Amino acid sequence: xxxxxxxxxxxxxxxxxxxxxxxxxxxxxxxxxxxxxxxxxxxxxxxxxxxxxxxxxxxxxxxxxxxxxxxxxxxxxxxxxxxxxxxxxxxxxxxxxxxxxxxxxxxxxxxxxxxxxxxxxxxxxxxxxxxxxxxxxxxxxxxxxxxxxxxxxxxxxxxxxxxxxxxxxxxxxxxx
Length: 176
What we know:
Blueprint: H1 4-33, H2 37-64, H3 85-110, H4 114-143, H5 149-158
């Protein structure tokens, strides 16, 4: 079993990851309703990725012999003022998740929970990629706000976030 404080905080993070997943569904629905299929697909993929991050945390707790708390998820935003707002929201969300992941890593280190620290290391690396991807997408969407088909073309050409990471921890139920 891991340190109880770490397990409690990781359960909180599971809720955050599932919440982020649903918020990305909200962004995808917005873009789908605006007939921007590439932006919608990008956020649907991000939703699955965040869900899988939560499931990786579930699997870790199961493997460590700790209790898993399946969280309630509140309704998420699916209406936005403009086409840039969902990407801004996503970047803010990724920055917040980075802070949360770093706090978990720090707690694991402070409690000398070496297995938890090693587990969290992958998420620390992942957040660098997530923030960079959202920063790039925000820049592209802001520059192309008057013609969002340019952002669609960027996503078709660059395909950010589509690479699978073979070093990722296993997810409970298998990654989708």
